[in-house]
Design a protein that fits this description.
Length: about 170
């Protein structure tokens, strides 16, 4: 089922999500609906607060460039209760956008590598060092779980440039 998105300035996007205590059929259904919604909205990530659920749940898709330079997205992944640690000293600036803030992209500086520990729907614990685009998507979606938006991480000058667009979006989505 395609879930409706919550847009910029909705209070749900500014609240901290709660840890998931157990994997239930309701959680499985939500995760699958989030995957379907992420694909429908053509996103590379989606966090539960973006669909009005204050749960520590994100879904992502990695990007790949094939041998023939063809860009494609990998299969969807579900991360439950992600915990980030050990950010690299090396950082990269890259344009980011967000399904909850349509039409706006801005340069965001983030570590190029991060360690992430999370649970899967089949109750496995996974720990990995995410690098590059994958690390960026995980950090972006994890920010949503803490009530942080990518526009909170941009320079004051860049923020001032997009403020009129944010105001128009806020007025449009009330």
């Amino acid at each position: 089922m395609i879930l409706p998105l919550f847009f910029y300035d909705h209070l749900c996007l500014r609240k901290k999500a709660q840890s998931i205590e157990s994997i239930t059929e309701e959680l499985r259904s939500l995760a699958n609906d989030m995957v379907e919604s992420m694909i429908h909205y053509n996103g590379v990530g989606l966090a539960a607060p973006q669909v009005g659920k204050l749960l520590r749940l994100i879904v992502i898709r990695d990007e790949f460039v094939g041998d023939n330079e063809e860009y494609r997205l990998g299969p969807p992944e579900i991360l439950i209760n992600p915990v980030l640690s050990a950010p690299s000293q090396e950082a990269e600036k890259m344009a980011e956008g967000c399904l909850s803030i349509p039409g706006i992209h801005a340069e965001v500086m983030r570590p190029s590598r991060i360690r992430v520990r999370y649970q899967t729907l089949d109750n496995r614990m996974v720990e990995e060092d995410a690098v590059g685009f994958r690390a960026r998507v995980i950090m972006h979606e994890n920010d949503h779980l803490n009530g942080v938006l990518f526009i909170d991480r941009i320079s004051p000058d860049d923020r001032a440039k997009i403020d009129p667009v944010l105001k128009a979006l806020k007025d449009k989505t009330k």
